[in-house]
Amino acid sequence: MSRLAEVIPLAEVERIATVQAKGRSMAQVKAQEGCAYILNSYFYDLSTGRPVGHVKARGEVLSQAAWNCYGLSWDTGADVRMEVIPDRGGENWLSGVELLAPGRGPGAELDYPAAYGGRRGRSAVLLAGERLVLYCSKDGTSQAKTPEELRDELAELGREYAAGESLRALGLDSGGSSQCMFPGGEIHSSRRAAGYLCVWVKKKEDGRVKGRYRVVPSVGVNIRSGPGSGFPKGGAYSRGTTVEVLELRDGWGRTKEGWVCMDYLEAAPDGQEGQRRTDSGVAIVPDLIPPGSANRPGGVNACTYITVHETGNTAQGADAAAHGAYLKSEAAARDKVSWHYTVDDRSIVQHLPDGESAYHAGDGARGPGNLCSIGIEICVDRGGNFEAAKANAAALVRLLVKEHGIPLERVVQHNRWNGKDCPYTIRHTAGAWEEFLALCGGNTNSAPWYAQAQDWVRTQGVSGVDRPGDPATRAEVWQMLYNMRHGA
């Protein structure tokens, strides 16, 4: 074989380790370590065999450069992530060539030493949503690639599981060192690498079984009328949705809505059945900022207001999952930026517990916006459906209102706390805020109702809903109109 790419759900990863060869062949290392996957890993000095760059293995620093960079960092393995190393690294670090990183998405210019250039065999690790992809191609074959070609291939592979801008990929030592032993095949080289990346996976009993599964890709999974991609689509499940698989057939699972590909599902962990959901059926996916991060202040949030924001990030792929990755980055920690939820057109991701304060209102660490309100960011990414994102945000507001007893008049704009022109799109669209509040109040057909309500307001001489001013005043008027409409 001249090219292999193995996709491993992170939920199935037991542990990951960087292992020094110390004169052993790849086969010897794999046999002695007992791992399921092995891939050449760090760059090293050819004359001494010592690692170069940033390498930390099982708590021991093997090499540390004078510069910082994006690299892989993890404690056990299922928590593997890409972040700036070594400053905020875990028990293990691994540097390489940043192929896809925060601020370096598909198509972005790469920065690498001349020795890494040219067309050659390559090894790499790709993080795509809840999937780990191990990649290896053989030197001197038609699968040999330039770094840019490798980046583009990894981006294409990863788009099956996550949005392009949220993909993370690290190029490892390559050329004659590029070699691997996977369950699906092997690529050998005459050169012995100095170090390997070993991956152990959890033991499976009898493969997949009927039961509850969670949708993994950030783009969701299509529901089809039969067990195969050739059958017509009949809808989709969003990321984080827990579904009951009633029947298994040829890698497909039947749910009450139709058939889904099991490659995009993972077994729901214990307690998943109790996952929070909105009344529209969207699951809330926890992706919490790590405790101790500078942008997780940890103070008490009184939960007496809900503050609505827009991300302002129109980049392709800047969805809820991508913003979750950003909030766990060095940049977010440095700038002390955080909020509780990000909502896009398919999913809702939670970054902080409701009862913790955050840095989202722009009114200071002790300001009422930060200390008393739950912050919700609505995605405005290019290619996303903003109207669907607003609907999901309104459903989240309805849930939070019910859980915390927050009255509708205390659902406010970011502008209320520090005067910022946010949520920008909503504020600059006539009637959009009132329409959004109507959705928050439970009116799922708000656009025609808004027009009717405006006519009624004008005939009654109540102009507060038309004129700019205190959002709370408009909310009170809108609640009154909504109550009249529904006989409350």
Descriptive report:
The chain is of the alpha+beta class. It folds into three domains: 3-201, no CATH class; 211-274, Roll (SH3 type barrels); 284-428, Peptidoglycan recognition protein-like (Lysozyme-like, 3-Layer(aba) Sandwich). The chain contains eleven helices and 29 strands. It has helices at 26-33, 147-158, 320-327, 330-335, 368-372, 386-404, 415-418, 424-427, 432-440, 446-460, 471-486, and strands at residues 3-9, 13-20, 37-40, 55-57, 60-63, 69-74, 81-85, 92-94, 97-100, 123-128, 131-137, 168-171, 180-182, 185-187, 195-201, 211-215, 221-224, 233-237, 242-245, 247-249, 252-254, 259-261, 265-267, 284-286, 305-310, 341-343, 348-350, 373-378, 411-413. The strands form seven sheets. The protein has a six-stranded mixed sheet with strand order 24-27-26-28-25-29. The protein has a five-stranded antiparallel sheet with strand order 1-11-10-12-9, with helices on one face. β6 and β7 (81-85) form a beta hairpin. The longest helix has 19 residues, at 386-404. It starts with a strand and ends with a helix. 47% of the residues are buried. The model is unreliable at 270-274, 444-454, 462-476 and 484-488 (pLDDT under 50).
